[in-house]
């Protein structure tokens, strides 16, 4: 439908006078008349009965008025929403995060939502490998992953946002001893390898570097369960040091030695992403504070 013609119809229907309607639209009366005629021609019906006292809706005009009003309102909403999307203040943002970014990612989202409350943000917990697959396929806009996992992927851009390292988790009442002694003497509670493949590889490499062989007494599907079992003194565990922030009471976490225990965390996204919400999210993370 012709937007100008529809607006002319609404204005004339409300005022009932060509002069008033033309003034409201800031056009001349002949221009208003031409717009009404265009709409009548397009619809194939007469919309107004014209007389000495102005213009009144015809029978067809009265029937069509609610539909034309609704069309103008819908077009207004469409234009407003398009403008919001263009400036990144509406739409969706899909993010992933992992164990080591359990505090970094929510803080980043909160900082972004403070500026853009109209954007719907999803934040899903998954491994770095899963995140990278979904970012590459376009199902995630960005992810917080182990930097090493994103190496050698030129289609992705990345920005380092944090660090983490391996740590030993033990019950507060457990005996004091060197981490290497505890790992060989006590059963180890381990996360399922597929739940955190990057963590599993790093733990394996650290153990190999220190010549250690461990006995896995129990496996769990999530880190909170691992830590809960440690708190109950069912064993010890090697976990990200960042899990100290979410560990239950009764768990003591100490860093494991050597640079092999360290890793960095990066925010990754597709280099060719055209998402305006992602662009504004990245800008929000670059701002101080």
UniProtKB/TrEMBL annotation:
What is this protein called in UniProt?
LysR family transcriptional regulator
In its UniProt entry, the species of origin is given as: Nakamurella aerolata
- GO CC, alphabetical: protein-DNA complex
Q: Which PANTHER family match?
A: HTH-TYPE TRANSCRIPTIONAL REGULATOR CYNR, TRANSCRIPTIONAL DUAL REGULATOR HCAR-RELATED
Family under the similarity heading: Belongs to the LysR transcriptional regulatory family.
Reading the lineage from the top rank, the first entry is Bacteria
Organism placement in taxonomy: Bacteria, Bacillati, Actinomycetota, Actinomycetes, Nakamurellales
- Spell out the CDD domains in the cross-references: PBP2_LTTR_aromatics_like
Q: Where are the transmembrane segments?
A: none
Keyword presence, DNA-binding: yes
Positions of the HTH lysR-type domain: 1-58
Q: Name one GO molecular function term.
A: DNA-binding transcription factor activity
InterPro entries in the record: LysR_HTH_N, LysR_subst-bd, WH-like_DNA-bd_sf, WH_DNA-bd_sf
Keywords, A to Z, come to:
DNA-binding, Transcription, Transcription regulation
Q: What Pfam families has UniProt attached to this entry?
A: HTH_1, LysR_substrate
